[in-house]
Amino acid sequence: MSATKSFPESVLISESCLQNRIRELGAQIFTDYENKELVLLGVLRGSVLFFADLARAIFKAQDENRTREVLLRFEFVQLMSYQDSTRPSTVKLIRGGSDYLTERHILIVEDIVDTGRTLTLLCEHLQTLNPKTVKVCALLDKPSQRQVPVVVDYIGFEIPDTFVVGYGLDYAQQYRNLPYIAVLEPI
Ligand code: IMP
């Protein structure tokens, strides 16, 4: 099978900007969940790079003697809302979290909140598992596209109404490994 041709891209959020903000988010989350056990719930596949860096940022926020800590566990869910296009389609839950989430503090780690439909479906699903608390951390927020109101507790960056790729986000499964967030240039 031949590879799809890539479009040129322009950087919207640089690698250093991403890493600085993630460090801040990690410190904030560490403070908020200090001495608690927290389940980081990654939404596959777009959140993987953010998830990995955020998990390390939470660890690095503790002091050297580790007198204060956050015990982190990892879980993943998978939802699908785009089918190789830049327009939303129906949201489906492909892989749900396990019963392990019952009675736990959960922090959903999302790549981007756009219409809000993915997050709404996920939160409804999680409520059936009776968690202790559910909060949301999204790297990117596109508030201008919201169709369903959602609460996002931790936001990395608010971005304009534009389709972005990189740092986990894809277009037709490409660009996920860019270390920055970019906008595709029309050709
Ligand atoms: P929502 O359900 O419309 O809020 O969309 C959430 C999901 O749509 C995200 O987890 C992404 O997978 C995808 N998505 C939304 N906007 C973009 C974008 O600009 N680039 C890539 N994926 C996006």
Plain-language structure description:
The protein has 3 helices and 9 strands. It has a single domain, classed as 3-Layer(aba) Sandwich (Rossmann fold). Strand 2, helix 2 and strand 3 form a beta-alpha-beta unit. Helix 1 packs across helix 2. It is α/β, with parallel strands linked by helices. Strands 4-3-2-5-6-7 form a 6-stranded mixed β-sheet. It is globular. The two termini are 23 Å apart. It binds inosinic acid. Inosinic acid (IMP) binds next to strand 5, helix 3 and strand 8. Inosinic acid binds next to strand 5, helix 3 and strand 8.
Outline of this structure?
This protein has 187 residues and is α/β, with parallel strands linked by helices. 22% of the residues lie in helices and 30% in strands.
Please tell me the overall pLDDT. 89
Estimated share of beta-strand residues: 25-35%
What is the CA-based Rg, rounded? 17 Å
CATH architectural category: 3-Layer(aba) Sandwich
Spans of at least 5 consecutive residues whose pLDDT stays below 50 are none
List keywords for this structure.
alpha/beta, Rossmann fold, six-stranded mixed sheet, three-stranded antiparallel sheet, 9 strands, binds inosinic acid
